[in-house]
Structure formats: C-alpha cells, structure tokens
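Exercise: predict the fold of this chain.
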Amino acid sequence: MKHFIILILCATFAIKASALDQCLILDIDETLVKNFMDLEFSTTGKSGVAKYIEQKKVIDSIGGHYFIFPGAKELVHAALDIHKFKIKFFSAGIVERNEDLIQKFLASFLPPDIIWTYKLEGQFEIFSRDHLRRLENNETLFDFHPLSMRISFTLLKKDLTTIGCDLNESVIIDDDLQYSLRGQEKNLLYIPSGFSPQDFFEQNYKTLKGTEQWFALNHLHYAAGILWEAMEQAKSNRNSLTEELHRFQFNFITGEYDYNEVSKYPFYYEKGLRILSPYESSTPGNTNQEDLPLLERSPVPRSYCPTPPIPILPIPDPRERSPLSFMDDSDDEDQSDLELE
C-alpha cells in the first residue's frame, strides 16, 4: 500500500511538472522599454538622463539608457495578481543585456524578496537571442508569419513551444512581426511602436493626445485592454484565449490582420487604464484616467459584432431559369422571337 501511494504521488508530480503554462510573454525593446542615446533635454537644463534614472523613468543598463513605457510595471503587477499568468520575457537581445535590464526593471517596482519568491515559483524566466529558433533548410518562406515578409527577413523566430507555453492560452506582446512563427499568429498581441522618448521629455505629452505618438506611448494600456477583454470573452464563450484574441485582431472580410486599425480603438485604451490604474506606482510619467485622448468615441469594435461570412451561392444550371434573373416572361418571349428570326 505504501509503495502504491508513493507511485501515485510521483505520477501526480510528473503530470504537474510536464503541464504547459499559461504564459504572458513580453518582448523587451520597443515594448517594455525604449533604448535611446544621451540627449540634451532643453526643458531640464541638465545634461544626460541622470535625473530620469533617479526618478525611475529610465534604466541604465548594457547598451545604453532605456525609457520605461507607461503601464509596463502595472501590466506585470496586474498579470501576476489578477490572472496568475507565468510572466516570461523574450527578446532577440544578448542574454547579458536582457538579464541585467530585466533585473533592474523588476527592481524598480518590486522588493528583492518578492522578486526572489516569484522566481522560486517559476516567474520571470528570460529568453534571449540564443533561444530563438533558426529555420531549417527544409523550411521555406511560407514558415514565416504572413505579414513579416512585408517588413523584413529573418531566419530567427520566437517559437513559443520551446519555452513551455500552452499555445491555446498563452499570449506574446510584441511590436515586431518578423519574429512571429507561422502557426503562432493567434498568440501575437501586436502593439504600435515608433515613439521617441525625446518627445516625451521635451514637451507636455498631453498635447500628443489623439496622435500616433500618443497611441505608441500608451501601447501597454492598449495591450492590457484587449488582453483582458479577450480573457473575459473566452470565459463567457467557453473558448480559448488565443481564439478570442484572434477574433479581435483578424478581419474576416479581407482575410488579414487589422493590427494598426484595431490599435486605434479608444475603448481598449480606456479599459486598460481602468485595469492598470489600481497598480499605479510612484513612477512619474504614468498615464491616468484624465489623460485619455479627446477623440470622438469610436463605434463598437468590429470584433464584437463579427460580420458573417459572405454566402456562397450555387452556380446556376444554364439549362434552368436563374432565380436571380431580372427579365420577366414577356422579355423572354420577345428574346426568343428575335432568335428565331
């Protein structure tokens, strides 16, 4: 009996150890942080970025200084607290830079003992350039994400199956399509990029509301909004998280992803701000409810009322009268008389 119990416990442990995680994978560059050169900021009268490092707006790490996007810390906090995701970081950067940068990022809002406890629970794994999957010789261009070929070409991909993630329930937040592997398109939560930290430091960023720069600056609030909406819809519809996320980002009429269009829905930014606001830290530069863009409220996103597929009509038999014909019987008779003549 004793041996039987031990066998059951070992089997249970093995099942748990082999179970795949529901992961939230975060890209680093252009997603959590933005690398930039030392600049003379006219509004401060000081040289460099020492002031912003002290305020924890900027991280000094290998390769330069890194501006922390608003909502980055709150998103990690909320994902750990609300949904119990396994947080992983995946960047094509070198391992030394990634580990140093993420350690300093986490230390900017979490105490060392909390970080250590989370790591013991399997949180905060870091994957770098060495973990990218290189396409083999027998794999062709069709193994790329269909949109990545429009931007750039790389043989290196972020393959989520190699880092212990359940593909049905895991999401990667990334600004770069070229690292997405074909077959994992539904796992990608694409965010807009292109924001310059200098624009943030040298002017009142509230004047950017409604512009491309504003959307790019607050892309993590958008990510939180659409991610939580997908989780709620998945629970309500008893569907997988990735299927709901795919439904939000995919245009079923054109057969393509509408990343740039969907990322401009104020609804998702507002939802993200509501979700992350309870986790706001003392880091200056975070947005709040009053900083929402003064845009006309957009209609309900297309994803909430998906257009039904266009019906395929049967090909009419030419020997039979088409039910769609606009000709009446008299026209048919006249036409037959002309043909006889």
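Check your answer against the key: Residues 19-304 form one domain.
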